[in-house]
Write a structure and sequence with these properties.
Helices cover 54% and strands 7% of the residues. It contains six helices and three strands; from the N terminus they run ααβααββαα. A three-stranded antiparallel sheet has the order 1-3-2. Helix 3 packs across helix 4 (86-98).
Length: 178
Amino acid sequence: MAVSPGSAHEHDAASPGGERQPPGPLAAAVEETASFLAAVWNQETAELPTSTAQLGVTAQLGVLLIVERHRDINLSGLAAQLGALMSSASRLCDRLEAAGLLHRVPGPSRRAVSLRLSPEGTALLDRLRRRRRDDLAGILMRMPPAARTAPAAGLGQFRSAASAMGGGRPRPGLAGPP
């Protein structure tokens, strides 16, 4: 079967040694599309409180998403999830708590403290998820009806291929807790 450059079957081409060739034009198209998706995905930064702007959007959302996913996580667990020092994680929590997005809840001993989203933190993540879905739905509605089903099928297969490689495990994100 003849394969045109950039076609979906381009990955089937084998090198003289029998190895699969990376789909150059297809990979470039996916990368370009991913950059557009990232731009839509990152529009939530305008919604984050200005009092926490100095934290960095990734760190703010990372903490909120980890706390949402790992209910009653403690500071040490959060630091491990972030790959950060305890003091850095504690400062992040201080700022998010001051912004009203996070609560520290005392445990049975004085040293045991759990982290939980405040109602405002939960509402913020819900608003961000709704906005992302609305933005994505708006983009999809601009596509011809027949083309709208292709991304779902292709992305499902992409997710399966990435999972099979072991590197496609999603990090906690605004898609919601498991």
